[in-house]
Known about the structure:
Blueprint: E1 3-7, H1 16-29, E2 34-38, H2 44-48, H3 60-65, H4 70-73, E3 83-85, H5 91-98, H6 107-112, E4 121-125, H7 132-140, E5 143-149, H8 152-171, E6 177-186, H9 191-204, E7 208-214, H10 217-221, H11 229-232, H12 237-282, H13 289-292, H14 303-306, H15 314-320
Parallel strand pairs: 1-4, 1-5, 2-3, 2-4, 5-6, 6-7
Helix pairs in contact: 1-12, 12-15
Amino acid sequence: MSRIIAIANQKGGVGKTTTSVNLSAALVSMNKRVLLIDLDPQGNATMGCGIDKHEVEKGIFDVLVDGMSVNDAQQKAAENTCAVLAANSDLTAAEVELMDMDEREQRLNNALQPVRQDFDFILIDCPPSLNILTLNAFVAADSVLVPVQCEYYALEGLSALLETVEGVRESVNPDIKIEGLLRTMYDGRNKLGVEVSAQLIEHFGDQVFRTVVPRNVRLAEAPSHGLSIMEYDNTSRGALAYLALAGEIVRKLARAVHTADEQPAAAEPISEAASQSERKETTGDVTTAESANPSSSGVAESPSSTGTPEQPLNDTESVNG
Protein backbone atom coordinates (compact mmCIF):
# COMPACT_ATOMS: atom_id res chain seq x y z
CA MET A 1 0.00 0.00 0.00
CA SER A 2 1.60 3.26 -1.15
CA ARG A 3 1.49 6.40 0.97
CA ILE A 4 2.07 10.01 -0.07
CA ILE A 5 3.26 12.28 2.74
CA ALA A 6 3.66 16.05 2.40
CA ILE A 7 6.24 17.49 4.80
CA ALA A 8 5.12 21.04 5.45
CA ASN A 9 5.29 24.04 7.74
CA GLN A 10 5.03 27.60 6.46
CA LYS A 11 7.66 28.64 9.01
CA GLY A 12 11.19 28.32 7.66
CA GLY A 13 14.10 26.71 9.46
CA VAL A 14 12.14 24.07 11.34
CA GLY A 15 13.71 21.02 9.67
CA LYS A 16 11.42 20.28 6.70
CA THR A 17 14.19 19.57 4.22
CA THR A 18 16.36 17.78 6.77
CA THR A 19 13.39 15.57 7.59
CA SER A 20 12.51 14.98 3.93
CA VAL A 21 16.02 13.90 2.95
CA ASN A 22 16.82 11.81 6.02
CA LEU A 23 13.42 10.18 6.43
CA SER A 24 13.66 9.15 2.76
CA ALA A 25 17.11 7.65 3.39
CA ALA A 26 15.90 5.88 6.55
CA LEU A 27 12.98 4.31 4.66
CA VAL A 28 15.33 3.20 1.87
CA SER A 29 17.56 1.55 4.49
CA MET A 30 14.45 -0.46 5.48
CA ASN A 31 14.16 -1.67 1.86
CA LYS A 32 11.26 0.63 1.01
CA ARG A 33 10.85 2.11 -2.46
CA VAL A 34 10.88 5.88 -2.01
CA LEU A 35 10.34 8.88 -4.26
CA LEU A 36 11.35 12.29 -2.87
CA ILE A 37 9.76 15.32 -4.54
CA ASP A 38 11.53 18.64 -4.01
CA LEU A 39 8.76 21.23 -4.28
CA ASP A 40 10.84 24.11 -2.89
CA PRO A 41 12.42 26.51 -5.45
CA GLN A 42 15.46 26.75 -3.16
CA GLY A 43 16.33 23.19 -4.20
CA ASN A 44 17.89 22.26 -0.86
CA ALA A 45 16.46 18.73 -0.83
CA THR A 46 17.88 18.22 -4.31
CA MET A 47 21.34 19.26 -3.13
CA GLY A 48 20.99 17.20 0.04
CA CYS A 49 20.47 14.11 -2.08
CA GLY A 50 23.74 14.73 -3.93
CA ILE A 51 22.23 16.25 -7.09
CA ASP A 52 23.54 19.61 -8.27
CA LYS A 53 20.48 21.84 -8.64
CA HIS A 54 22.33 24.07 -11.11
CA GLU A 55 22.70 21.16 -13.53
CA VAL A 56 19.13 19.84 -13.33
CA GLU A 57 17.83 19.35 -16.88
CA LYS A 58 14.48 17.84 -15.98
CA GLY A 59 12.60 17.69 -12.73
CA ILE A 60 9.42 18.68 -10.95
CA PHE A 61 9.05 21.88 -13.03
CA ASP A 62 8.73 19.79 -16.20
CA VAL A 63 6.16 17.54 -14.53
CA LEU A 64 3.96 20.38 -13.28
CA VAL A 65 4.19 22.79 -16.21
CA ASP A 66 5.03 20.70 -19.29
CA GLY A 67 3.25 17.49 -18.34
CA MET A 68 6.38 15.31 -18.43
CA SER A 69 5.88 11.90 -16.83
CA VAL A 70 7.37 11.20 -13.41
CA ASN A 71 9.31 8.26 -14.82
CA ASP A 72 11.01 10.50 -17.36
CA ALA A 73 11.78 13.28 -14.87
CA GLN A 74 13.03 11.32 -11.84
CA GLN A 75 16.70 10.63 -11.18
CA LYS A 76 19.01 9.09 -8.59
CA ALA A 77 22.28 10.45 -7.23
CA ALA A 78 23.59 6.94 -6.52
CA GLU A 79 22.52 3.33 -6.21
CA ASN A 80 20.59 2.35 -3.08
CA THR A 81 19.20 5.86 -2.67
CA CYS A 82 15.71 7.24 -3.20
CA ALA A 83 14.45 8.47 -6.55
CA VAL A 84 14.27 12.28 -6.74
CA LEU A 85 12.15 14.78 -8.63
CA ALA A 86 14.66 17.62 -8.48
CA ALA A 87 13.99 21.36 -8.23
CA ASN A 88 15.81 24.64 -8.64
CA SER A 89 14.96 28.32 -9.03
CA ASP A 90 13.01 27.57 -12.23
CA LEU A 91 10.24 26.35 -9.97
CA THR A 92 9.52 29.95 -9.01
CA ALA A 93 8.26 30.51 -12.54
CA ALA A 94 5.99 27.49 -12.18
CA GLU A 95 3.99 29.33 -9.52
CA VAL A 96 3.13 32.01 -12.08
CA GLU A 97 2.44 29.63 -14.96
CA LEU A 98 0.22 27.35 -12.88
CA MET A 99 -2.13 30.22 -12.05
CA ASP A 100 -3.40 30.29 -15.65
CA MET A 101 -3.90 26.53 -15.98
CA ASP A 102 -7.09 24.54 -15.59
CA GLU A 103 -7.20 22.33 -12.49
CA ARG A 104 -3.92 23.86 -11.41
CA GLU A 105 -4.19 22.40 -7.91
CA GLN A 106 -4.49 18.88 -9.38
CA ARG A 107 -1.34 18.92 -11.52
CA LEU A 108 0.87 17.00 -9.09
CA ASN A 109 -1.88 14.58 -8.08
CA ASN A 110 -2.61 13.71 -11.71
CA ALA A 111 1.09 13.16 -12.42
CA LEU A 112 1.57 10.83 -9.44
CA GLN A 113 -1.39 8.52 -9.97
CA PRO A 114 0.18 6.45 -12.82
CA VAL A 115 3.35 5.75 -10.77
CA ARG A 116 1.95 5.68 -7.25
CA GLN A 117 2.10 1.90 -6.91
CA ASP A 118 5.75 1.86 -8.02
CA PHE A 119 6.71 3.29 -4.62
CA ASP A 120 6.00 2.42 -1.01
CA PHE A 121 6.40 6.03 0.07
CA ILE A 122 6.33 9.34 -1.79
CA LEU A 123 7.61 12.24 0.31
CA ILE A 124 7.06 15.87 -0.73
CA ASP A 125 9.32 18.62 0.61
CA CYS A 126 7.06 21.68 0.60
CA PRO A 127 8.18 25.33 0.38
CA PRO A 128 8.02 27.50 3.53
CA SER A 129 4.81 29.21 2.42
CA LEU A 130 1.20 28.33 1.70
CA ASN A 131 1.15 28.87 -2.07
CA ILE A 132 -0.03 26.99 -5.17
CA LEU A 133 2.90 24.55 -4.88
CA THR A 134 1.99 23.66 -1.31
CA LEU A 135 -1.66 23.33 -2.35
CA ASN A 136 -0.64 20.85 -5.06
CA ALA A 137 1.20 18.84 -2.43
CA PHE A 138 -1.81 18.80 -0.08
CA VAL A 139 -4.20 17.73 -2.86
CA ALA A 140 -1.90 14.84 -3.83
CA ALA A 141 -1.03 13.75 -0.28
CA ASP A 142 -2.63 11.16 1.95
CA SER A 143 -1.26 12.95 5.00
CA VAL A 144 0.84 15.88 6.21
CA LEU A 145 3.87 15.51 8.47
CA VAL A 146 4.60 18.75 10.33
CA PRO A 147 8.11 19.37 11.69
CA VAL A 148 7.86 21.68 14.71
CA GLN A 149 10.86 23.34 16.26
CA CYS A 150 10.52 23.41 20.02
CA GLU A 151 10.23 27.16 20.43
CA TYR A 152 7.41 29.67 20.94
CA TYR A 153 7.09 31.07 17.40
CA ALA A 154 6.76 27.58 15.95
CA LEU A 155 3.49 27.13 17.84
CA GLU A 156 2.03 30.32 16.36
CA GLY A 157 2.52 29.16 12.78
CA LEU A 158 1.20 25.69 13.51
CA SER A 159 -2.42 26.78 13.91
CA ALA A 160 -2.44 28.48 10.49
CA LEU A 161 -1.08 25.35 8.83
CA LEU A 162 -3.66 23.11 10.47
CA GLU A 163 -6.43 25.47 9.33
CA THR A 164 -5.12 25.22 5.77
CA VAL A 165 -5.12 21.41 5.92
CA GLU A 166 -8.70 21.50 7.22
CA GLY A 167 -9.68 23.80 4.34
CA VAL A 168 -8.16 21.38 1.82
CA ARG A 169 -10.03 18.50 3.48
CA GLU A 170 -13.34 20.32 3.15
CA SER A 171 -12.81 21.36 -0.46
CA VAL A 172 -10.58 19.19 -2.66
CA ASN A 173 -9.07 16.31 -0.65
CA PRO A 174 -11.48 14.87 1.93
CA ASP A 175 -9.11 12.01 2.81
CA ILE A 176 -6.08 14.07 3.88
CA LYS A 177 -4.95 13.54 7.46
CA ILE A 178 -2.26 14.76 9.81
CA GLU A 179 0.47 12.12 9.76
CA GLY A 180 1.95 13.59 12.90
CA LEU A 181 3.83 16.46 14.51
CA LEU A 182 7.58 15.92 14.67
CA ARG A 183 9.56 17.76 17.33
CA THR A 184 12.87 18.87 15.81
CA MET A 185 16.06 20.57 17.03
CA TYR A 186 15.19 19.45 20.53
CA ASP A 187 17.57 20.23 23.38
CA GLY A 188 16.56 18.78 26.73
CA ARG A 189 18.81 21.28 28.52
CA ASN A 190 16.68 24.14 27.21
CA LYS A 191 13.74 24.84 29.53
CA LEU A 192 11.68 26.51 26.78
CA GLY A 193 12.15 23.51 24.50
CA VAL A 194 10.94 21.16 27.22
CA GLU A 195 7.89 23.37 27.87
CA VAL A 196 6.96 23.63 24.18
CA SER A 197 7.32 19.86 23.81
CA ALA A 198 4.98 19.34 26.76
CA GLN A 199 2.44 21.80 25.32
CA LEU A 200 2.41 19.96 21.99
CA ILE A 201 1.68 16.67 23.73
CA GLU A 202 -0.98 18.27 25.90
CA HIS A 203 -2.86 19.81 22.97
CA PHE A 204 -2.32 17.22 20.24
CA GLY A 205 -1.82 13.97 22.16
CA ASP A 206 -1.25 10.95 19.92
CA GLN A 207 -0.74 13.18 16.89
CA VAL A 208 2.74 13.98 18.23
CA PHE A 209 5.36 11.43 17.17
CA ARG A 210 7.16 9.70 20.00
CA THR A 211 10.39 10.26 18.15
CA VAL A 212 12.21 13.51 18.92
CA VAL A 213 14.94 14.76 16.59
CA PRO A 214 17.73 16.28 18.70
CA ARG A 215 20.09 19.08 17.83
CA ASN A 216 22.98 17.22 16.24
CA VAL A 217 26.17 18.47 14.62
CA ARG A 218 26.37 15.53 12.24
CA LEU A 219 22.88 16.28 10.94
CA ALA A 220 23.99 19.83 10.15
CA GLU A 221 27.18 18.67 8.42
CA ALA A 222 25.67 16.01 6.14
CA PRO A 223 24.03 18.35 3.55
CA SER A 224 27.31 20.12 2.83
CA HIS A 225 28.65 16.78 1.58
CA GLY A 226 25.54 16.04 -0.49
CA LEU A 227 24.75 13.05 1.72
CA SER A 228 21.91 11.94 3.96
CA ILE A 229 22.71 11.29 7.59
CA MET A 230 22.46 7.54 6.88
CA GLU A 231 25.34 7.81 4.42
CA TYR A 232 27.31 10.38 6.39
CA ASP A 233 27.16 8.90 9.91
CA ASN A 234 24.57 6.21 10.50
CA THR A 235 25.53 5.83 14.17
CA SER A 236 24.90 9.46 15.12
CA ARG A 237 21.98 10.50 17.31
CA GLY A 238 20.41 12.23 14.31
CA ALA A 239 20.54 9.04 12.22
CA LEU A 240 19.04 6.98 15.04
CA ALA A 241 16.24 9.52 15.40
CA TYR A 242 15.23 9.32 11.74
CA LEU A 243 15.44 5.53 11.79
CA ALA A 244 13.08 5.58 14.78
CA LEU A 245 10.74 7.95 12.94
CA ALA A 246 10.72 5.70 9.87
CA GLY A 247 9.88 2.77 12.12
CA GLU A 248 6.97 4.66 13.68
CA ILE A 249 5.52 5.54 10.30
CA VAL A 250 5.89 2.01 8.88
CA ARG A 251 4.29 0.44 11.94
CA LYS A 252 1.45 2.96 11.89
CA LEU A 253 0.71 2.18 8.24
CA ALA A 254 0.91 -1.57 8.90
CA ARG A 255 -1.60 -1.26 11.75
CA ALA A 256 -3.97 0.74 9.55
CA VAL A 257 -3.81 -1.90 6.80
CA HIS A 258 -4.28 -4.72 9.33
CA THR A 259 -7.32 -3.02 10.86
CA ALA A 260 -8.87 -2.45 7.43
CA ASP A 261 -8.35 -6.11 6.51
CA GLU A 262 -10.00 -7.30 9.72
CA GLN A 263 -13.20 -5.27 9.42
CA PRO A 264 -15.05 -7.61 6.99
CA ALA A 265 -14.14 -10.65 9.15
CA ALA A 266 -15.59 -8.99 12.25
CA ALA A 267 -18.96 -8.58 10.55
CA GLU A 268 -19.39 -12.27 9.64
CA PRO A 269 -20.60 -13.55 13.06
CA ILE A 270 -23.35 -10.90 13.04
CA SER A 271 -24.60 -12.05 9.66
CA GLU A 272 -24.56 -15.68 10.83
CA ALA A 273 -26.53 -14.79 13.96
CA ALA A 274 -29.13 -12.97 11.90
CA SER A 275 -29.39 -15.98 9.63
CA GLN A 276 -29.95 -18.29 12.61
CA SER A 277 -32.66 -15.95 13.92
CA GLU A 278 -34.50 -16.02 10.60
CA ARG A 279 -34.40 -19.82 10.50
CA LYS A 280 -35.77 -20.10 14.04
CA GLU A 281 -38.59 -17.65 13.36
CA THR A 282 -39.53 -19.66 10.28
CA THR A 283 -39.89 -22.88 12.34
CA GLY A 284 -41.90 -21.15 15.07
CA ASP A 285 -39.04 -20.95 17.62
CA VAL A 286 -39.35 -17.71 19.58
CA THR A 287 -35.71 -17.78 20.73
CA THR A 288 -34.01 -14.47 19.84
CA ALA A 289 -30.80 -14.20 17.81
CA GLU A 290 -28.97 -12.95 20.87
CA SER A 291 -29.87 -15.98 23.00
CA ALA A 292 -29.23 -18.32 20.11
CA ASN A 293 -25.73 -16.92 19.71
CA PRO A 294 -24.65 -15.10 22.91
CA SER A 295 -21.24 -14.25 21.46
CA SER A 296 -22.80 -12.14 18.72
CA SER A 297 -23.45 -9.26 21.11
CA GLY A 298 -19.77 -9.09 22.02
CA VAL A 299 -18.33 -8.84 18.53
CA ALA A 300 -17.42 -5.16 18.90
CA GLU A 301 -15.39 -5.95 22.02
CA SER A 302 -13.34 -8.74 20.49
CA PRO A 303 -9.56 -8.24 20.25
CA SER A 304 -9.67 -8.48 16.46
CA SER A 305 -11.99 -5.50 16.18
CA THR A 306 -10.44 -3.27 18.83
CA GLY A 307 -6.86 -3.84 17.84
CA THR A 308 -3.75 -4.37 19.97
CA PRO A 309 -2.50 -1.55 22.24
CA GLU A 310 0.61 0.13 20.94
CA GLN A 311 3.80 -0.93 22.69
CA PRO A 312 6.48 1.58 23.77
CA LEU A 313 9.16 2.23 21.17
CA ASN A 314 12.42 1.37 22.84
CA ASP A 315 14.49 2.73 19.97
CA THR A 316 12.72 6.08 20.21
CA GLU A 317 13.13 6.31 23.96
CA SER A 318 16.85 5.77 23.61
CA VAL A 319 17.02 8.59 21.07
CA ASN A 320 15.10 10.96 23.31
CA GLY A 321 17.49 10.21 26.15
